[in-house]
């Protein structure tokens, strides 16, 4: 399968007052046509920075290296006009905060229609009609009335549906959903995931799902990339990864998750001791070594690289047998 | 919304009554006697008494107050002690000048202030921001009257670009009218422009870091739409408040500006009336100013709900 989105050796550093800060280090990802790739990891592991750098949405203080190809077109280093024509039309985003991601002073219909007027050149009326269709598509009841509502008149779940409607307005090739359900109640989350699943089935949209919630991953993803401290440490098909995690960090994540861990009712949840280190602190070591139960001497002196194949892992002492959690 | 409006109107009435009492008492607390001012050289006690009687100055304060309020309520503001003209028509003559001057000044200040504020926010940390900040500081610290005198000295007298003083009614010659008002409006608007600029800059900076701006960028909108539409519309809510709060300063600024440019407006009327102890005129002028202030503030409040839909709904609930 030819990938729609191909990220290769993507590195992001930020210029800060304390010097350069590395956020993402040589990350490579591939997303096939109609595939859902989940990128999981703890807060601060570089998931969102990776996502934002795909369409050049990082602030000016960020320095991005490497390659991001969308259907063969290189996006890193592309001029602003090209990037603008891709954003919202071929690569669309859904963000974590539905409460603040919509502009409070415009109606939701206006904000959805704006995408269509910008990229497709629809008239005001045509954009409004299409906005109503889109609101129906994402499951908003009485869409004809809701289209004239302001964001504050909608609940969090409804707003996130509006965000999704806005994102898929131009039928993008890739939808990047950055923690789309994190800010929502559990009951609302399921509805949003249903909408995303439906879009993939009906429109064939490829989705990059950024999340720290393994329950969401199990629900929606085809493949998973696990990130830790700015690097991809393991990637595999979702069933393979859940059944047979090879990186101790992945195993730890699964053990810390009540939904994904087996025998969750009878077992205590395990936590991973320590915190995610800064990437710049350990250039020549496995970044997980300090927190790793399986660390050997070698781990602190040399950095492991990803293996090749279907199930890739970057670890000197991977878990070989299925773990008992 | 209706309840809100009613409560605002009620507040306005109370404010007006208080303003009336304060100004009535204040005028009479001023040293000096209008009868003396009117009589001029003639200090004959008989003619002084005649004058006092003619204008009701020998009545008790309560009676005078009741006369004033009951007449004002019927639209009769009395006659000027100095000229004998009806105060109503004096105000009708002077008010349009001041209103036009104020509107032009707000217009000038908004265009310059919002424009410079947006530039300062978008070009943060670059020379454009420093220039805008320096200009704002200058605009705030340089007093109106000095700026007005300098403008007359250089732009009117030396270069002859604008008339130094005088006024032509708008309806007799609109172009000449604007030509006369450009300088005064600029001078009067300077301070306001500086305030608006600083406010726009800070609220734009807030808006530009908001999540919905990231959304707008992710939609592939042009910088013009992101800044000029999504960020600016949100910033204007704060700016409108500031303009409303600055109206008092604008009115007192108009007094000084009109004086410098010899415009026959409200400011001139007020200053002349105070010098002459022209009680009816002072009272009427303050009454009209207070009313204008209250009405404009009410309009500003209504303007919010146009800009910010959230306020509309809260008022309905």
Automatic annotation (TrEMBL), chain A:
It holds the Pfam family oligo_HPY. It is found in: Cell membrane. It is a peripheral membrane protein. GO terms for molecular function: ATP binding; ATP hydrolysis activity. Keywords: ATP-binding, Cell membrane, Membrane, Nucleotide-binding, Transport. Transmembrane segments: none annotated. Belongs to the ABC transporter superfamily. This is Peptide/nickel transport system ATP-binding protein. It comes from Kribbella antiqua. The lineage of its organism: Bacteria, Bacillati, Actinomycetota, Actinomycetes, Propionibacteriales.
Automatic annotation (TrEMBL), chain B:
Residues 95-304 form the ABC transmembrane type-1 domain. The chain crosses the membrane at residues 101-122, 134-157, 177-197, 236-261, 281-304. It is a multi-pass membrane protein. It holds the Pfam family BPD_transp_1. InterPro entries: BPD_transp_1_N, MetI-like, MetI-like_sf. One of its GO terms (cellular component) is plasma membrane. It is found in: Cell membrane. Its main location: membrane. It comes from the Bacteria. Keywords: Cell membrane, Membrane, Transmembrane, Transmembrane helix, Transport. GO terms for molecular function: dipeptide transmembrane transporter activity. Gene3D superfamilies: MetI-like. Belongs to the binding-protein-dependent transport system permease family. This is Peptide/nickel transport system permease protein.
